[in-house]
């Protein structure tokens, strides 16, 4: 793998992760609206159990969003580091041609 292509590949991965996080966030908003409508018809223990299950699933999805967002930021940081190393290397190694 060429060093110069690494930053671009890392940034592409970062953009993919960011898009996935946005999509999951949108899905969470849709689920929130649906659960609000559905839960109005639930009663007693069924309502408590269903909301508890939903809250567990929602927490898992929120954790995925956080992980994707964190990974995207780390990839952006790594891409910047690779670009700086590449630029420094270009200054140190004379190019023939």
TrEMBL record:
Domain of life of the organism encoding this protein: Bacteria
Gene3D superfamilies: ESAT-6-like
Matching InterPro entries: ESAT-6-like_sf, T7SS_ESAT-6-like
SUPFAM superfamilies: EsxAB dimer-like (SSF140453)
Record family assignment: Belongs to the WXG100 family.
Protein name from the UniProt record: ESAT-6-like protein
Species for this entry: Mycetocola lacteus
């Amino acid at each position: 793998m060429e060093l110069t292509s690494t930053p671009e590949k890392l940034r592409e991965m970062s953009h993919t992760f960011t898009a996935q996080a946005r999509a999951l966030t949108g899905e969470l908003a849709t689920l929130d609206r649906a659960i609000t409508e559905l839960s109005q018809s639930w009663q007693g223990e069924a309502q408590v159990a269903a909301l508890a299950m939903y809250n567990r699933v929602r927490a898992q999805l929120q954790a995925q969003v956080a992980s994707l967002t964190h990974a995207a930021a780390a990839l952006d940081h790594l891409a910047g580091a690779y670009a700086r190393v590449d630029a420094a290397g270009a200054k140190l190694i004379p190019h023939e041609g």
